[in-house]
Amino acid sequence: MELIIEKTRQGRKGYSLPSPDVPPYTLTDSFVRKGTAELPEVSEPQVMRHFVNLSVLNHHVDRNFYPLGSCTMKYNPKINEETSRLHGFSCIHPLQPELSTQGALRLMYDLGEYLKAIVNLDAITLQPAAGAQGEFTAISMFKAYLNKKRESRKYILVPDSAHGTNPASVNFSGFKPLTLPSSDNGLVDVDKLSVLMTKDVAGLMLTNPNTLGLFEKRVKDITDIVHKKGGLVYLDGANLNALLGITRPGNMGFDAVHFNLHKTFSTPHGGGGPGAGPVAVTEELKSFLPVPVIECREDSYRFNFDLPDSIGKVQSFYGNFLVMVRAYTYLRMVGADGLRGISKSAILNANYIIESLKDDYHLPYADYCMHEGVLSGKKLKDLGLRTLDAAKRLLDFGLHAPTVYFPLIVSEALMIEPTDSETKETLDYFIDTMKRILEEAKKDPESLRTAPHETPVRRLDEVKAIKELVIRWKT
User: Fold this and answer.
1) Cα separation of 304 and 293, whole Å?
2) Among 143, 118, 167, which residue's Cα sits nearest to residue 288?
3) Regarding predicted confidence, which is higher, 298 or 349?
4) How far apart are CA 177 and CA 407, in angstroms?
5) What does the pLDDT look like over 225-264, one tens digit per residue?
6) pLDDT digits over 294-318, tens only?
């Protein structure tokens, strides 16, 4: 043990770590303040009240319901925050020697093993910092794989109901997106897939369940068609909250899948970050993963940079580590049985809302949904209003709006995802409020056009806000 500690102190590349006898945050004289700091005197109650008051000016999942479809704004258990603040996790540095970060490396390795088991795939990278970067990483691996086979395929098929990041990731990876149309039931048109899947097509990006909340019932037929033509199939894992413990993408024939740790596994996101988008792949694609990958050898953990076919790094260092700590905590807390319960609750909650509102708002695709469902506000449009007006009015009742106007294949779309963490009482309040808003639209449409009325900031001129961006609260 003494030998290990001494090696750890020596660091690497000539850098040495502080001795345990020296306080870890000691500053040299050049950085020490020579006079008293000119800071305002503020009492603890004043500070607390300031930040509590700030916290209620915005809507957030700790405050009330946040049914933002395809963003999975589920509750973030506070135990996740406690573990991410542990000194051994929050105060390490990515350039420390591996011997001094064995606990962190083990957590990352074990998390990767859990994620691989959840989707039944063979290898994983934790490096991507968001779902969109996970998409880019996976499709870049497809590109490298095909290049090694000396195949110059040009296109990736993207369904017309896909998330907007899908075609962007295709372009950035060196392919061109080719739109795959949906059938009349909102699912992939398998006959058109058979026609479009030529030798010029490298593969397919598929969201399952799709953004309508519908499960692709012919998913094995879809992956078989692509594979028979030499292509690869990627799963956009944004909607994995519906599959946990019920079915596994690897069993459906997917070659790669990304996880949104900040959605499916209850870590915070929004406002540009933080996020994490690990990518799991088949054995066939393993050698193309970004470097380094984490390996376990003889009860110790190390970074392996020796992947000759690697696409290289996609982010500095090894990924958003504290997001991984939160996801690891969540997985250890709920266990395998808990994961299945999460998906069953998410599916039940979504169907409860859609079935309760389908006669008030239009249901464009009359099928049971998975973790989210899509209604249309076309009845509002018939009254001279917009879906946006209903979304703004929801804020007056302490509720965040669902995603609106997406997916694009639904006119006046209302995309509702209640998540597994909401109670029936909360869902009933949302349902009753949506019904009330529709009645207001008939009797007092102006109350919707001018909503919200009870928020700190009233309705903005959105066009002006885009053109004349003001990022300070005082001018």
Assistant:
1) 5
2) 143
3) 349
4) 17
5) 999 999 999 999 999 999 999 999 999 999 999 999 989 9
6) 999 988 999 999 999 999 999 988 9
Question: Quick one: 293 and 349 in the same domain?
Answer: no
Of the candidates 312, 332, 352, which is a domain's last residue? Answer: 332
Predicted TM-score of the model (pTM):
0.88
1 within a domain of the structure (yes/no): no
146 and 240, same domain (yes or no): yes
**CB-hemisphere CA count at 13 Å for 367?**
16
Residue 49 lies in a domain: no
Instruction: Domain of residue 250: give its range.
Output: 88-332
Report long-range pairs for 313-317 (Cβ below 8 Å, ≥24 apart): 313/127, 314/127, 314/128, 314/133, 314/136, 314/137, 314/140, 314/290, 315/127, 315/128, 315/129, 315/133, 316/94, 317/94
**In terms of domains, do 354 and 290 share one?**
no
Question: Do 269 and 223 sit in the same domain of this protein?
Answer: yes
List the CATH number of the domain containing 433. 3.90.1150.10
Please give the single-letter amino acid code of residue 61: V
Residue linked to tokens 């695709």: 365
**Overall size of the chain counted in residues:** 475
Q: What is the domain count for the chain?
A: 2
Question: In 3D, which of 124, 84, 87, 78 has the Cα closest to residue 328?
Answer: 84
Supply the DSSP string of 245-312, one letter for each residue: TT--HHHHT-SEEE--HHHHT-----TT------EEE-GGGGGGSPSPEEEEETTEEEEE---TT---
Residue 457's pLDDT is what?
86
